[in-house]
Design brief:
By secondary structure, the chain is α+β, with helices and mostly antiparallel strands. It has helices at about 10-25, 30-50, 55-85, 155-165, 195-230, and strands spanning about 5-10, 95-100, 100-105, 115-120, 120-125, 130-135, 140-145, 150-155, 170-175.
């Protein structure tokens, strides 16, 4: 039985791609905007030809302009939201192990408690050139980085074969389009790792010990001087 293991960084890039996919194929935000623009245009035409009040035409025109702005600013708004989300927050990772029977997810912030999903819990599979999203329940994705660099065990071909087999049995959506139109330039903040914190503690403890040693030596010298002065007297 083939077992594939990958490491996915849940960083700005990953969350941007996955959110854009969901916005396009699940929430259908852009489709809804197009529909509302067409409805507004219909109201404007009806008002000009039948009602002739011009009030509905003005309101419809304002709504169309606002909808067009929304249409072209969806990705920019997402960038702003993600930047706010990651402010002061480190990037988590998850190791995903996939085989024919189950998916095991080990999260970096809780490595002692892996989560195991039987394939029966996966109700949708989404595919884009960069990632797979295995949807658990109504909206919880297991994100798998498809890049060669993310592979820990197994091959990309084996991963694609397992996902392809499971996708034939479940609701499945795929795009070959690069969903990101605005280049990703976000730079994550750097946070000290556990090893770095441990080293810092060792340095601090070493400094404290050195200071204590110097203090003891100084005290011993002072005591010796006092003894010598007492002898001279």
């Amino acid at each position: 039985m083939n077992k594939i293991k990958t490491l996915t960084k849940l960083d700005f890039r990953t969350l941007k791609y996955c959110n854009l996919f969901i916005m396009k194929f699940q929430r259908r935000s852009r489709l809804w905007i197009i529909v509302t623009v067409l409805l507004s245009a219909g109201i404007i035409v009806y008002d000009l030809l039948k009602l002739q009040t011009k009030m509905f035409s003005i309101l419809g025109g304002v709504f169309i302009l606002y909808s067009i702005y929304q249409f072209f600013s969806l990705e920019k708004k997402l960038d702003t939201q993600l930047a706010a989300f990651f402010r002061g927050r480190p990037v988590n990772t998850q190791t995903v192990e996939v085989d024919d029977e189950k998916i095991t997810v080990v999260r970096s912030f809780d490595p002692e408690n892996p989560i195991v999903y039987d394939w029966s819990y996966i109700n949708q599979i989404f595919e884009m050139p960069q990632y797979y999203m295995l949807m658990v329940g109504k909206g919880t994705p297991i994100i798998i980085d498809r890049s060669e660099e993310a592979l820990i065990e197994g091959t990309k071909a084996e991963l694609d074969a397992i996902i392809g087999e499971k996708a034939s049995l479940k609701p499945y959506k795929k795009t070959e389009e690069d969903l990101v139109k605005i280049p990703i330039t976000y730079v994550h903040e750097e946070f000290p790792t556990a090893d770095a914190v441990e080293v810092d503690n060792e340095v601090v403890n070493s400094d404290v010990a050195e200071e204590a040693k110097d203090s003891v030596e100084t005290t011993e010298v002072q005591e010796a001087e006092l003894v010598e002065e007492a002898d001279e007297e």
